[in-house]
Amino acid sequence: MEPDTLFVVGLALGVLSIPAVVSSVSRGERPRIATITLMIAGTMLVWAISNKPGGYSIEAIPAMVKRVLQGFT
Fold it and tell me: Element (H or E) spanning 31, and its range?
């Protein structure tokens, strides 16, 4: 899988799992599944960054996300 695609999927998983963590903690439960999802997302992000020559700059992320999402359609 292309590093850009893994980066976008990892970013989406990370962002979507944050509400699950907050919800579980506010109910007094352990956020097991949300924590596992965050670890998977972090692993995807680290793998994508380490396999992309030159890495990613903050300014390039929105354009890359747009390009990857357009590739799915």
Answer: none
Domain that holds residue 52: 3-72
- Tens digit of each residue's pLDDT (9 = 90 or more) over 4-60: 999 999 999 999 999 999 999 999 999 999 999 999 999 999 999 999 988 889 999
Task: Indicate the burial class of 48 (C-beta count within 10 angstroms; 0-12, 13-18, 19 or more).
Answer: buried
User: Which of 46, 49, 40 is closest to 17 using CA atoms?
Assistant: 40
3-state helix, strand and coil shares in percent for the chain, rounded to the nearest 5: 80, 0, 20
Number of compact structural domains in the chain? 1
